[in-house]
Write a structure and sequence with these properties.
With 415 residues, the chain is α/β, with parallel strands linked by helices. The chain has 21 helices and 8 strands. Strands 1-2-3-4-5-6-7-8 form an 8-stranded mixed β-sheet. β1 and β2 form a beta hairpin. α14 packs antiparallel against α15. The longest helix is centred in the C-terminal third of the chain and has 20 residues.
Length: 415
Amino acid sequence: MDILIIPVPFFDKDMAVCGYFFQFQEGNSLLHANQTEREFDGVALSPLLATLNAVGIDAFTMGLPIFVPISGLSLLANLDDQCKVPPENVIFVIRSDVKAEEPYLSCISKLKSKGFRFAMQDIARVDQYGPVAGLCDYAFFNHKLMHKVEWQVMYALVRKDYNSLAVAMTDVDTQEHYEELRKQDPTLFEGRFYRTPITKGAHNVNPLKFNLIKLMNLVREDSFEFSEVSSIVQRDTALSVSLMRMINSPALGLRQKVNSISHAIALLGEKEVSKWVTTAVSKLLGSDRPDELTRLSLVRARFAENLAVKFKMEDKSQSLFLMGLFSVLDVILELPMKNALAMLHVTDEIRDALLEGKGEFGQIYNFIQNYEAADFKSVSRSLIVNDLTPSDVYEAYIGALKWYRDVISGQADPA
């Protein structure tokens, strides 16, 4: 599909993800300059909903609710007929072009009667949108604007006159801001705070994590004994279970169940098993951090691997996978990235990309970061330079999301 799309996580006060907001752009904005701001014009809604309808909500959100931005025009265009996602999993996000008058109010009421929910975003005067606010379930406030008096007044009005509205605070950049806000009224939080890297200072790494890092280094040596790896894995029940579930997940599509590393090697080969051991170890390293970090690292890993073909770097796909996997290592180990990478045996290409954004790997890493930030202008420039289309990126990214879904589906305990 000719669309760039990224689900952005919303967290609750316990740092659990409870929904995703969709940023998207149709086509390449630099090739269609007059359509740069089409996200909310009512036309771009169709490809977004078409994507959700075609791919399914599980690939994007693992069944969690989705915040879908809409315009006033699209609100009037039979949304319930367009949207095939279950109503209880959809929150439509309306903007200031939705007026506090008919026929908008009737459309919102009709959709709410069918189970859909609504959120208010970029509403300049809450007091002028009273009837709309009374029908909504959430109100978005940008944390970076809360120092302005007008936004403080609007926030106070919401808390006073519309206290049934759950407040979603966006653009929360630091862990300190999150900790301060979670003691106050906001219900949901969005921003970079959960993956803010450590840039300085010392931190003692848990001894158990040291052992996992040693194993990760072992399987990445040019010559090693898999019997030694097998012995280490078997002594760690959590690692053994996690590895076997990953290998037996739908992501690999094996026709027979694998019950040991030696069996896995026979079916997959040492290189592929080494990759999966590294993936399982990375997942365990982040077990004491927000689950979204694991999702971020695994999706980045597969996305980078998928982009290798698009960027004509097929022979380096395995290394690009590792680059994506290690890209949040600083947050997981609570160390500056330079210190975190010093604990691992990584190539200069991976190190230069993650520390300085340099080299061929840095090109792909920067592309992934721009994509995640919904910096679609930078992404569009990269597409032109590398002779790629939005469909190329869509295919690589959706493939990464589906792969992650399949990997995690193999991680769940049987009912």
